[in-house]
Amino acid sequence: AIFKADLKLRGDFLKNSIPPFAGDVVIDNWQPEFDLKFSGGGFFMPSSGNVNLLVRNSNVTTKFFRQSMPIKNIESKIVWQRDDIGWKVNISKLEFKDDWLTFYGDGQLLFPVKSQMPVVDIQLGLKLSNLAKAKLYYPITVLPHSATAWLDKAFISSKPIYGKMILQGPLDKFPFDNNEGRFLVDTNIRDVHLNYDPDWPHIENITGKMVFSNRSLTISANSAKILHAPVKSIKTTIPDLEMPILHVIGAIDTDSSVGLKFLNLSPLKNTVGRKLQAINLIGPMKFGLEMDMPLSDDVPKKDTDVEGDIELYNNNVHSNSWNFSINNLQGNMHFNNGNLVAKEIRGKAFNRPIKLAIHTLNPNTDNNITHVNILGNAEVGEFEQAFSVKLHPYVFGNFNYHALLQLHSSSSVQNTFKLNSDLVGVEVNLPEPFAKKAASAYKFNLIGYFGGNKLPQVTINYNDQINAALMIKKTDNNSLQVLAGDIKFGTGHASVSANSGLIISGNIAKLDWPVWKDYLTKAKANFATIGLVIRQISLNVAELNVLGQIFKHTVLKAQPKNSGWDVAFLTPNIDGKLFFPSDDKAVIQGVFKKLFISKEQQNLTTLKPQSLLPMHFKIDTLNYNGKNFNQVEFITEHQTNGVKINKITVSDSKFSVDASGDWVDVGNNRSSVFRGKINSDDVGGLLKQWELTDNVTGGKGSATFVLRWPNSPYKPTLQTVSGTFSIQVKDGRIIHLSKQAESKLGFGRILSLFSLQSLPQRLTLDFSDLTKKGFGFNTMSGDFELSGGNALVRKITIDGPSALVKANGRIGLKTQDYDIMLSATPKITSSIPVAAAIIGGPVAGVISFIADRMISTAIKKTTKATYHITGSWDAPSVDKG
Predict the structure, then answer these.
(1) Is the pLDDT of residue 35 over 90?
(2) 730: buried, middle or exposed (CB in 10 Å: 19+, 13-18, 0-12)?
(3) Which of these ranges, 166-175, 215-224, 866-875, has the smallest mean pLDDT?
(4) How many whole angstroms from its chain centre is CA 490?
(5) Which whole number is the average pLDDT over 379-396?
(6) CB 424 within 8 A of CB 439
(7) How far is Cα 370 from Cα 367, in angstroms, rounded to an integer?
(8) Are 211 and 217 within 8 A, CB to CB?
C-alpha cells in the first residue's frame, strides 16, 4: 500500500473526539515530505493510542537534511496520549536501518498545545558503517555553511563506528545554545582518516572517541598515525560550529625526519619547516603541536595560529650544503607561527661540547630571520672535515669560536653561517707575513651563504691580511669544488665575479718565492681535487725574493697561457716577463728589457741548484752590481745533483762572452766550474765599464779560462779558486803615469813607474797614480794557474816599443806575499815607449819597481836586468840578480 500524509493539515476540523486506537500499522514505500515546523493545534488522530509501527523501503524528505533519507526498515512501538498539556508520545523498541546508519532506542515526544515544535527526550544507540557517510545526516539548517563544508571533507574513511545519541529539550531551541536542552552524539571511532585541512598532513588510523555536544565537536584519539608515524595523543575540537574554529592539539613521539616532513607538508614549510630543513635535523624527537584554524569563509587562513614544542634528545643536525654537523642535541625548542625560540640546547660540534640558543627576528613578518647562536671549541682537523677545506699541514691547533646561523623565512634570500674566532691556540705554518704563533690572537671571520636557489658562497677574513670570496659546490664524492673566487691580500674587499676561476690581487709586504714554492708544491698535492683554475694574479709586493735576488716595490702580474703561466715583473729596475710551464721539467722562458741586480739584493743562503728549474733567459740590459752587460742570454738544464749551464753569452759593444759551466751539490758539498772566452775590441773601455780600472785605454784582446771552486757560483774567493786563464792583448796604452817617472825620463814618459808601496794597489788594478798620457804596448800575453790560494805566473810577457818585460813565479793570494822572477830589457833607441806594467795585480807593481831602479841607475844603459821579488804585499823585498 502507498500512504501519503501532509502534516500541515489541521486536525481540529473534526469537532468530535476520535475513540482510542490500537493495533499494527505497516507502511511500504512511504514518501512523505515534512516541513520543518508543525502547524496547527491538533492532529487528525485519536486522543490516545498504542500501535506497532513498521515502515519499509521508504524515503523521507525534509529540509532538515540535504537529501531524502532512505529507509530500509523502521520498527517501533508507539504509545500516545493527549491531555491538557498536549500530546505525549512514547516511542519504545525503536530500530532504524538504512544503507549506512543503524540506530535503536527509546524516546518521548511532548507536543505542547501552544508550541509548534515538540519537546523531545530521545536516547539511541547507533552504528555508522563509514564516517564518510555522516554528511548525509548533518542538520544543515542548523549548521553554517563553513561548518558543513568542513564536515563534508574532513572524514575520508573509517571502520564502522558505534555510539549513542541523546536529544533532550525543545526542538525549537536546538542546538541549545543557552543550555535549554542537550544534544550529544558520543561514538567510539576506529581507523578514521581525518582531513582536517588540505594544507596539512592527514591524520590516519584514528582510534578513540568522537563527540558532538550541542554545537561543539571533539575528536580524541587514543592512537593515530601521521605520515605513517605513531601519534602519542591528539585532540581535535571545534568549540562552536556556528563560528567554527578548529583547535588541534597533539603530540608525536617519532623520528625527526617525520617531524620535518610534517612541517614541510604544512603551511609551516616556509617558516619553521624551512629553517629546520636547512639544518637537516636527524634523530628522535617529541613533537607537540597546538593550532587554531578559522573555518569561516570570511576569515583568511593566514589568521591560523600555530605553536608547538620540539623536544630533542640525542639528535643530530646536518647541513645539506656542508659537512657541518651537531650531535647529541638535548633540549627544547618552541615555535609560534614563524617564531622559533630555544633558551639553551646542549650538544656536540666538531666532537666537542657546545651550547645553542635560538631566537627569531621580526617573527610576525614575511621576512623573519631565525638566529642560532653557537658557542664552542673546535680542532682544526674537525673544521676541515666540516667545511670541506684542506688546511693541514699549514694550520693546526684548537680554537674557541662563536657561530651564528641565520635562517631566512623568505626562500629567495640566502641563509648564512657566520663563524668568528681570535684563533688563540691555532698555529699557522705559512711564510711571512701570514705565519702565526699559537699564543697570539688574530681576527678570523668566516661567512657561508647557502640556499636561496643560489650556489653556496664563502667569505673569509684572516686578520685583515687575507680576504677571500669563493663560490663553491659539493661534488658527488662530497669534496669541495671552487667554481669562482677572489682572494685579496691586504684590506681590500673580496667579491665573487660572474666568471669562473680565481682572481688573486692585493698588497704583500714580503714574498719569499723559494719558501712559497715549497708550500705551493705541497698545496697542489693537497688541493688536487679542488677543481680551481686561477684566472689572474695581480700583486704589489714590497719585497720580493726570487732566484736569489731581493726586489723592492714589485708589481707582479700573472695569467695562464698555453698550459703555463705568463708572469710580468715591473719595478724601477726590472721590466720583463717569465713563462712558467705547467710541466715541472719544462724550461722557464724569460725575456727582459732590463734587469738590475746588486749584491745587496742577493739572498742566496737557501738557494740549492737541485731546486732550480731549466731556464732560458734573454736580457737586453743586465746590470749586476752597477756593471752593465748588454744582450745577455743564458740557458740551463736540470741535472740530478745540480744544474748544468749550457750557455752564457754577452754581446756588448765593448766585449763578448761565450761560456758554460756546472753547479753541483752532492751531500751539501757544492762546487762550481766555469769555462769560456772573453773577447774585447776595447780592453781599456771594458776595464773601466767593469770599474776595475780606468788606467788603460784601447787594446784588443781575449782571455780564455777554466775556473772552479768548492762553493756556489756566487761565492768564489781568491783562496779557493783553482784553474787556468790566459790573456792576449795588443795595441793598448797605460795612462796616468807617475810624476816621478816623468821627471826622470823626460823623453815621452817611456816607462810607467810604480813604487814598492803601491804593489797592493796594483793587485786590484788601481792605476790612479799614472800620468794622463801614459805609454803604449804592442802585445801583452801570459798564462796563469790558480791553485791552493796561489796564482802561478807562467810566461808573462809585455812587449812594447821601449822595453820587453818578462815575469814568472808565484803570487800568494791567500798569504798575500810574492815570489816573482822578473826581467826587463829597455829599448832605448826606440821612439815608442816601453810597456812597463802588466794590467792588474802585483805583477804590475813589480815591473814598475824595476823600471824605477833602471832609470835611477843609468837611463841609457841597455843591458838586461833581473830581479827577485819576495815578501809581503805591504813590504816586499827586491833583490837584483
Answers:
(1) no
(2) middle
(3) 866-875
(4) 19
(5) 81
(6) yes
(7) 10
(8) yes
Establish if 328 belongs to a structural domain.
no
The domain tally of the chain equals 1
Give strand pairing partners of 189.
Answer: 208
Q: Angle between the 256-264 and 272-279 helix axes, to the nearest 10 degrees? A: 140
Strands 501-512, 480-489: parallel, antiparallel or unpaired by DSSP? parallel
pLDDT, one tens digit per residue, over 795-845 is 888 888 777 888 899 888 888 888 988 887 877 544 333 333 333 444 444
Q: Please give the grid coordinates belonging to residue 170.
A: 525543545
- Residue 440 CB coordination number (10 Å): 14
Within-domain flag for 291: no
* pLDDT of res. 527: 52
The answer to whether 733 and 727 are in contact (CB under 8 A) is: no
Q: DSSP of 369-382, one letter per residue?
A: EEEEEEEEEEEHHH
- The string over 175-203, giving b where at least 16 C-beta atoms fall within 10 Å of a residue's C-beta and e elsewhere, is bbeeeebebebebebbbbbbebbeebbbb
Give domain status of residue 41, yes or no.
no
- Cβ neighbours for 300, distance < 8 A, ≥ 6 positions apart: 294
Specify the amino acid at residue 870: T
Q: Give the span between the Cα atoms of 270 and 287, in whole angstroms.
A: 18
Alpha-carbon distances, residue 318 vs 280, 323, 568, 830 (angstroms): 5, 7, 46, 104
User: What 3-state class would DSSP assign to 265?
Assistant: coil
The x, y and z cell numbers of residue 610, run together, are 737541485
Please give the Cα distance from 570 to 538 (Å, whole number): 11
Say if residue 755 is exposed, middle or buried (CB neighbours under 10 Å; 0-12, 13-18, 19+): middle
Residue 296: per-residue pLDDT = 76
Q: Which of 212, 213, 254 has the alpha carbon at shortest distance from 231?
A: 254
Mean pLDDT of 85-90: 90
**Distance between CA 256 and CA 264 in Å, rounded?**
12
- Report the distance separating Cα 753 and Cα 776, nearest Å: 13
Of residues 216 and 691, more confidence is placed in 216
* pLDDT confidence band for 756 (50 / 70 / 90): very low
Is 429 within 8 Å of 523 (Cβ atoms)? Answer: no
Cα separation of 264 and 270, whole Å? 8
pLDDT at 40: 42
pLDDT tens, 469-478? 988 887 776 6
SS3 content of the chain, % helix, strand, coil (to 5): 15, 55, 35
Per the DSSP assignment, residues forming a β-bridge with 255 are 284
Cell numbers for 221 = 584519539
The number of angstroms, rounded, from the C-alpha of 254 to the middle of its chain's C-alpha atoms is 35
In a domain, 126, yes or no: no
Strand, coil or helix: 277: helix
| Separation CA 72–CA 74 (nearest Å) | 7
In whole angstroms, what is the distance from residue 830 CA to residue 828 CA? 5
Q: What's CA 362's distance to the chain center, in Å?
A: 29
Q: Is the pTM of this model over 0.85?
A: no
Amino acid (one-letter) located at 617: F
**Type of residue at 329:** L
Is residue 266 within 8 A of residue 199, CB to CB? The reply is: yes
At residue 8, the pLDDT reads: 36
Task: Report how far Cα 158 is from the mean position of its chain's Cα atoms.
Answer: 54
For residue 243, the surrounding DSSP H or E stretch is: none
| Whether the Cβ atoms of residue 774 and residue 751 lie closer than 8 Å to each other | no
Q: How far is CA 343 from the centre of its chain?
A: 30
Q: How far apart are CA 632 and CA 654, in angstroms?
A: 14
Helices (H), 114-223: 145-154
The residue count for the chain = 881
The C-alpha cell that represents 541 in the structure block: 709586493
755 is written with which cell numbers?
A: 813604487
**C-alpha pair distances (Å), 220 with each of 200, 207, 209, 212:** 18, 8, 5, 12
Q: Which of 278-287, 466-475, 602-611, 633-642 has the highest average model confidence (pLDDT)?
A: 633-642
Name the strand (E) or helix (H) holding 129.
Answer: none
Query: Could you list the residue range(s) of the whole structural domain that residue 832 is in?
Result: 676-880
